[in-house]
Amino acid sequence: MIVEHLSLVDFRNYAAADVTLVPGPNVVVGRNGQGKTNLAEAIGYFATLGSHRVSQDAPMVRFGSEAAFVRARLGYGDRRIQLEAQLNRSGSNKARVNGSPVRTSELPRYAQVVLFAPEDLQIVRGDPSARRRFADQLLMQRVPRLAGVLGDYDRVLKQRTALLKSARARGLRAEQLTTLDVWDDKLVSLGTEIVLARLRLTEELAGPLRAAYEAIAGADHDPQIDWVSSIAGADPEEDAAATDAAVFSDPDATAAAFRAGLMAKRSQELERGVTLVGPHRDDLLLRLRGLPVKGYASHGESWSVALSLRLSSAQLLRDQLRLGDPIVILDDVFAELDADRRSRLAGVVADFEQVIVTAAVEGDVPEPLRARTVRVEAGTIVTDADE
């Protein structure tokens, strides 16, 4: 899969922009703040329905405009597909595929993108939400239907939490809150599917993660990936032990554990007005040499783990062979790496169908990834030609 052409209107600092890209390496060069990352962000949106920099869509709409438009022509061998996303400052976004309206959640069916950026260091060093987001965005690309499941879960969670807050304000006891059981049923049904999908994902990531880490770091530090689950009774904010996967032997066992966890925490939930059990509370546990990466790994090791998560994601998508190779984007990454890691990373990604690299200094990009260069200045494409 490749992006052949990208068109932006009122997206970030671009009033309008058109960029032609080619198979193999593409380097986007420009000083900081000129709009390089905005191009990467726009391409990534089709695959993840979000930004790697902000949690809301509104900041992607150019100041003074009510909507941004992102259009991309994707090539899969001899096949061409035109994708369009309309990001509204307020209200629901809209999407089109080959000119026909579709639900926005349909876009990841057509686009697979793996984007690595300096912000990814938060996956290994930040709070659990960053790790959940990483896993869920990869899930949506591998199983696009799960975008709807995740969205429905979030809506049910908000409704259930609102009910708990209302009950706390009114001083109601658990036995007086019969409608909570209805929301429990919905939460368990959707949450069970998410929990099982995440577990399958981590099992499949384990091998590629080890291979990617050794390729990047040149060392075998036994990287491991597991979940700490609130459904199994753990508190991810306090516990650093992986949950025994046997607890989730099948959907019925997982649903039963989820329901039991909700019942065990019900009094606490009423006291605090929050939902304390479910995949929204779980954490992805990353370890090197048996120790959690967060709090124990060095800066270089943390970078290597973050890179390895993205590279192993790309390998999973490639192995799936649904749309060919995913598009690999390296956003302002090489400036953060030493010469050895730069060379190793270039060697790992060089054979993907299309690699898009952004850099403030072209010399930071290893020679094997310098083929086509696009130059950006103040939201304007000033050079769009082979060099």
Structure description:
The chain has 387 residues and is of the alpha/beta class. The chain contains 9 helices and 15 strands. The chain has helices at residues 36-48, 121-125, 128-142, 146-170, 180-217, 251-272, 293-296, 299-320, 339-349; strands at 2-11, 14-20, 24-29, 67-76, 79-88, 94-97, 100-102, 113-116, 224-228, 283-288, 291-292, 327-331, 354-359, 372-377, 380-386. It has a 6-stranded antiparallel beta sheet, with helices on one face. It has a 6-stranded mixed beta sheet with strand order 8-12-13-3-14-15, with helices on both faces. Strands 9-10-11 form a 3-stranded antiparallel beta sheet. A hairpin with a 5-residue loop joins strand 5 (79-88) and strand 6. The mean pLDDT is 90. This is DNA replication and repair protein RecF. Keywords: ATP-binding, Cytoplasm, DNA damage, DNA repair, DNA replication, DNA-binding, Nucleotide-binding, SOS response. Pfam families: SMC_N. ATP binds at residues 30-37.
Could you tell me the radius of gyration in angstroms? 22 Å
Name the CATH homologous superfamily of the largest domain.
RecF/RecN/SMC, N-terminal domain
Gross morphology: globular
In N-to-C order, the SSE pattern is EEEHEEEEEHHHHEHEEHHEHEEE
Named CATH topology of the largest domain = Glutathione S-transferase Yfyf (Class Pi), Chain A, domain 2
Mean pLDDT: 90
The biggest beta sheet is recorded as: 6 strands, antiparallel
Determine the N-to-C terminus distance.
23 Å
Percentage of residues assigned to helices: 40-55%
Which structural class should the secondary elements be placed in?
alpha/beta
Low-confidence stretches: none
Total domain count: 2
Extended strand count:
15
What share of residues are in beta strands?
15-25%
Identify the CATH class of the largest domain.
Answer: Mainly Alpha
Q: Which CATH-level-2 architecture of the largest domain?
A: Up-down Bundle
Total DSSP helices: 9
Strand order of the largest sheet: 2-1-4-5-6-7
